[in-house]
Specification:
It is built from 9 helices and 7 strands; from the N terminus they run E-E-H-E-E-E-E-E-H-H-H-H-H-H-H-H. The protein is an alpha+beta fold. A hairpin with a 2-residue loop joins strand 6 and strand 7. Helix 6 packs across helix 9 and helix 7 packs across helix 9. The structure holds iron/sulfur cluster (2 copies) and FE2/S2 (inorganic) cluster (FES).
């Protein structure tokens, strides 16, 4: 099979540079075996254009930094095999987040704001005693929490969400998944009435349209549909 010549059409803009106009720039590369989008972007930066901005840390689908719009669909550059893509690949930064430059967005700032708003930490009245053994947790409880804790905060679900595009204050599937995780945690003393105060509005669980774009694009295949449904039912009971 002859190697394809790939054309990458990439969004370029640096909002901090007064001379930078938003636009698209084309780059061409020959496809190599096993090429990922991360490898292609690295080659573009090393061989064709050192000014191209994009984020990565782990190159293994763990850190969540390299999410972008790949031919219109949110995904991780390091987990995207070029052989599954057409020869023309359009790349945009994830919508819904502050643009740093080109394909790089500030998901960290958004995630921190969401975590603070949802108080995404264990709330407990018990004092920690470092001299006693840790409290035990049933393995099935720990497993259920771990399943939701696999979120890497990549932002793909936020970028895919219709509600998010209309309501910038929406907590997103990532936020609802976070609260679902603390609701499962036996160490967290919060009641459903307290959770309702945080997400019982249209910018929380009742703003979700349940079209599940979030679940379709989540690279960790988190059970967002199930968690959103459980949470909505529990919160609807509080509103009665
Ligand atoms: S829920 Fe999935 S898509 Fe959303 S931030 Fe977490 S890992 Fe990414
Ligand atoms: S199901 Fe809800 S959170 Fe998920 S993409 Fe749709 S509106 Fe957004
Ligand atoms: S570089 Fe870490 S998820 Fe892609």
């Amino acid at each position: 099979m002859t190697a394809r010549t790939l054309t990458f059409r990439v969004f370029r803009h640096n909002p901090r540079d007064p001379d930078s106009e938003p636009g698209m720039r084309d780059y061409q590369l020959d496809e190599t075996p096993g090429m990922t989008l991360f490898i292609a972007l690295t080659r573009i930066r090393e061989e064709l254009d050192p000014s191209l901005s994009f984020d990565f840390v782990c190159r293994a689908g763990v850190c969540g930094s390299c999410a972008m719009l790949i031919n219109g669909r949110p995904g991780l550059a390091c987990r995207t095999l070029i052989r599954d893509q057409p020869a023309r690949i359009n790349l945009f930064p994830l919508p819904g987040f502050e643009l740093i430059a080109d394909l790089s967005v500030n998901t960290g700032k958004w995630m921190r704001g969401m975590s603070e708003r949802l108080q995404a930490w264990v709330h407990t009245a018990s004092e920690t005693d470092v001299n006693v053994l840790e409290a035990r947790m049933a393995p099935e409880e720990a497993e259920a929490i771990y399943e939701l804790d696999r979120c890497i905060e990549c932002g793909c679900c936020v970028a895919a969400c219709g509600t998010m595009q209309m309501r910038p204050d929406f907590v997103g599937a990532v936020g609802m998944n976070k609260l679902a995780r603390f609701r499962l945690d036996p160490r967290d003393d919060r009641t459903d009435a307290e959770y309702y105060q945080m997400i019982g509005q249209d910018n929380g669980i009742f703003g979700c349209m349940s079209l599940l774009g979030c679940q379709d694009v989540c690279p960790k295949e988190l059970p967002l549909q199930t968690q959103i449904a459980y949470l909505r039912r529990a919160m609807a009971r509080q509103g009665l």
